[in-house]
Design a protein that fits this description.
With about 650 residues, the protein is of the alpha+beta class. It has 5 domains: about 5-60, Helix Hairpins; about 75-290, DNA ligase/mRNA capping enzyme (D-amino Acid Aminotransferase, Chain A, domain 1); about 300-400, OB fold (Dihydrolipoamide Acetyltransferase, E2P) (Beta Barrel); about 410-565, no CATH class; about 580-650, Rossmann fold (3-Layer(aba) Sandwich), CATH 3.40.50.10190. Helix content is about 35%, strand content about 20%. The protein is built from 23 helices and 24 strands. The strands form 6 sheets. Strands 12, 13, 14, 15, 16, 17 and 18 form a 7-stranded antiparallel β-sheet that branches. Strands 2-11-10-3-9 form a 5-stranded mixed β-sheet. The chain has a 4-stranded antiparallel β-sheet with strand order 5-4-7-8. α16 (about 485-490) runs antiparallel to α17. The N and C termini lie far apart (about 85 Å). About 35% of the residues are buried.
Amino acid sequence: METVNAIAKMKELIASINLADKAYYGDDAPIMTDKEYDALTDELKSLEKETGIVFANSPSKRVGGVNKTELGKVRHTRPMLSAKKTKSVDDVVLFAEGKSVVLSWKLDGLSLILRYENGVFKQALTRGEDGLVGEDVTHTVKYLRNVPKTAGKGNFEVRGEGVISWADYRLLNKDSSSGHPRSLAAGLVRSLTPDKGRLSHVDFRAFELITDESRKTKEEELDALAAEGFAVVDRITVAASAKAGELKKAVAGFIPERYLYPADGIIAEYNDLKYGKSLGATSHHENRMLAYKWDDSEYETVFRGVELSATRNGAVSITALFDPVVIDGSRVSRADLHSLGNFEKYEFGVGDVIKVYKANMIIPQISENLTRSGNYKIPDRCPCCGAPLEVRTSSGGARNLYCPNPECIARNAQKLARFCDRDAMNIEGFNATVLEKLMAYGLVKTFADLYNLKNRRADMLLIPGVGYGVCDKLIDAVEASRAATLSGFLVAVGIPLMGAAAAREIDEYFLGSWDDFENAVKSNFSLFHIAGVSEALDRNIKSWYKDENEAKLWRPVLKEIRLMSRLKTSATAAGPFSGANIVITGTVNNMPRKTLTEILTLMGANVSDSVSGKTDYLIVGETPGSKKLADALKLGTKIITREQFLKMLTGAEE
């Protein structure tokens, strides 16, 4: 290629890669697949080698990562570089060349550095844009499931990966057919407001101790970390005497589709730490290690169209549909296209021959359209309400479709489902599918309409699949939610960036009082002073409160529910459970025991685990324990049924 053309192409590649980096690292919203990203990077490196020109802003000169401007910046003790990559197992054999190597999983999450002072956890950083300066994410990492609060005795740093297992991802993300645990982990860790509940599903797996020179081998280093309570990467050590065939067999033993965490390859590292350190590093990678990435097996099939679905914020997801093909033992017929821009670049036409694969042998993706007939027109109307769709561009450059109709059943069903979530109003049984049915039959349109369902029982019974049992359970769940907390309400109404953790901090600050919270917002009180509330969330709360359209949704709910103010629910306050000693047995309306205990405590009750002569009430739910019931009958304790409890809870019965 002529130098002039090569330079123009290099600039184009740099712009595309930098845009993808911002979307991936900065917005946690990828605009291209890993395969496409790697192809662009390989082409850029090839042109740089051919021309001898490397531009200052070239991605090949830096380690991937973009800092969020709102997070604090901290310089690393030592540059956090990447590893040279290969897709050839023969390169791994050449890398080992008669030396002992440690093979470990290349986990697909967010790289983190933990700092300990005098054996106490003090700070957590991300890798950052250049591997030199990272983001301070101590406020979220401290809630990760397995980060030791204390370890060792001196000052040291540990590097590892923040990663979500496939099982936890399916638990946290109901639509786990699209997306990736990596994006969820990165979003949670880099969030300005910690979501303690969801962060507890993120694991830290250590892979390096960087400030201790006393260890001679990588195995000793990882064993030392494990002895201090760190979960370390799973690995095997291959002896220096191993033949090429043995090494290849060891590599083949890493099977990603059977592993509990997402992984995009294997790291081969010299076991001799002193030797590895002596090899030095480039500005991009350390020479002591090599990353082996799997080749994705591709399969040809036929494109048939797309499926659109609206989310609660109005964004419309695009899923490609194609003739079923078996990949890695499972039948695949659809793949997430991420964005409108991604859809457009394939130039689809019905009947086009396309190549599909499973990224990291897990996530279905389209790699190429071989035919490119370009005659398929993507639907321009919302699949649910029929409103004309809009095209909007995100800060990361991704072009997406949006449904602008605030009355859209699909997007409102998602919004209502969020309102009913466990960490919100905790209304059991109201998922998006159920809500879409209720909305289609005109029974529910707004949050407040849920609280009128008890008066529309006959209408509910007309809905296919909603029998007497289902109907009564749904109504009971709504009635139970009338006794609510300020934190649950704030999560339920969909304030941007409002997580369960921040909502609880606000609840505690205002002692559960809506009036005090509302007065603070109206007087422009700086909520940023409350622990866990960022400046961005502070702005969002005030914007939400002033938005008249939003107010039409949430304000009527306040007339239907009773928020448990800590000032008004002390043991001396009037109420059916004030000052009472209560024991619970069985499940009450599918309500988590912790939530039920919290509500009763807010109402002035003392909740204990066993029945005694001091027990005033035994609340009996579904599948109760026989011992507590027998003890209550023996002692003459008053027994409250689930139905009686719900009536007392909502003030219908004193």
